Amino acid sequence: MYTHILVPTDGSDLSTAAVDQALQLAKALGAQVTALTVAEPLHFLPVTPAATASLRMDYETHVKEDGVRILGAVRERAAAADVTVETVQETAGDAWRAIIDTAERKGCDLIVMASHGRRGVSAFLMGSVTTKVLSHSKVPVLVYRA
Question: Which spans are transmembrane here (predicted)?
Answer without folding.
Answer: none
